[in-house]
Every structure is written in structure tokens, then in C-alpha cells.
Design goal:
40% strand, 90 residues, globular, alpha+beta
């Protein structure tokens, strides 16, 4: 199954939304079973976005998965980009 990078950038001054939604976000990642790895982008010691690599049938399915993420639903992200990704090393 293809892999997709889901690159999310937080809206400025939305750290509180991230923190309030974090447990639901982590539960969603675990429940869906498609995440290969994930973690936040950090700037100045604080999260400013997220990188997730997921398995999906196609880009549209990956985008639909990203749209259901509790972070997305809570309005945390200024942008979400979905790009097919291929693992080469690691």
C-alpha cells in the first residue's frame, strides 16, 4: 500500500487547541492503524505543526483520513498537505 506524508502547519497562537485536543488526536492515530510514524514540528521549544506518514489506498483516501483527525476538526491547522512518499532509508 502506498505511503503518504501528511504535513500540517498550525495556525498561530493555537497551542491551547493543540493541547486540549491531543488525547483525541493520539487515540485517532492509534485506532485507525494506518500511521507509520508521526510527530510535531518544533520551533522555539513549542509545537508548530505535525508530520505524519500513513498508509492509504490513494491520495484522496489519505486526504479523507487527515480531514477526520481531531486536530483538523478542531481548527488547529492553517494548512494540510498530502504528498505520496517513498521510504528509501531507515
Amino acid at each position: 500500500m502506498p505511503l503518504f506524508a501528511v504535513i500540517c502547519r498550525d495556525k498561530p497562537n493555537h497551542l491551547q487547541i493543540r493541547m486540549e485536543t491531543r488525547e483525541r488526536h493520539l487515540a485517532y492515530l492509534a485506532e485507525t492503524g494506518v500511521v507509520q510514524f508521526a510527530g510535531p514540528f518544533i520551533e522555539g521549544g513549542s509545537p508548530i505543526g505535525s508530520l505524519l506518514v500513513i498508509e492509504a489506498e490513494n491520495r484522496e483516501a489519505a486526504g479523507a483520513w487527515a480531514a477526520k483527525d481531531p486536530y483538523t476538526q478542531a481548527g488547529l491547522f492553517a494548512s494540510v498537505e498530502v504528498i505520496e512518499w517513498r521510504k528509501v532509508i531507515g
